[in-house]
Amino acid sequence: MSVRSRTHLTRAHGLPAEQWLAKRLNVHHALADPEGIFAGDTDPPVRKARMREAIIRHELATVICARDPRTSSPIRYAEAFERVYGEPFDVPRETNTQQGAP
Q1: In the chain, how many domains are there?
Q2: 9, 11, 30, 61: least CB-packed within 10 angstroms?
Q3: Is 80 in contact with 21 (CB distance < 8 Å)?
Q4: For residues 60 and 28, is the Cβ–Cβ distance under 8 A?
Q5: Would 70 be classed as within a structural domain?
């Protein structure tokens, strides 16, 4: 990812990137309160975990949440997460203990 594309979400629409992402999640009703991501005494790892959990719980990883202003290409929640936090959006795999069961 280029520095320029990451910078776009650093202050998207005049908001810090995490606040912007929380407000976008609120649009899709993934958060009861977008400020809940920031509730309490939080640090970046806690907020990152809350964002990831909201995206996974509401199955929004592949949903378009924005468009790149330079190319008009879609940005999905997983990609926005990666741009905001600078790390891959990894969905934890569920282990199926009933493998092979009918």
Answers
A1: 1
A2: 11
A3: yes
A4: yes
A5: yes
Residue-number span of the structural domain to which 62 is assigned: 3-85
Read off the tokens for 97.
């203990």
Q: Are 22 and 51 in contact (CB under 8 A)?
A: yes
Print pLDDT tens along the chain (102 aa): 444 444 455 545 446 888 889 888 888 887 766 667 777 777 888 889 989 999 999 999 999 999 998 999 999 999 999 999 999 998 766 544 444 444
Integer Cα distance of 82 and 9 in angstroms: 10
b vs e for 5-44, b when ≥16 Cβ sit within 10 Å of the residue's Cβ? eeebbeebeeeebbbbbbbbbbeeebbeebeebeeeeeee
Instruction: Give the SS3 label for residue 67.
Output: strand
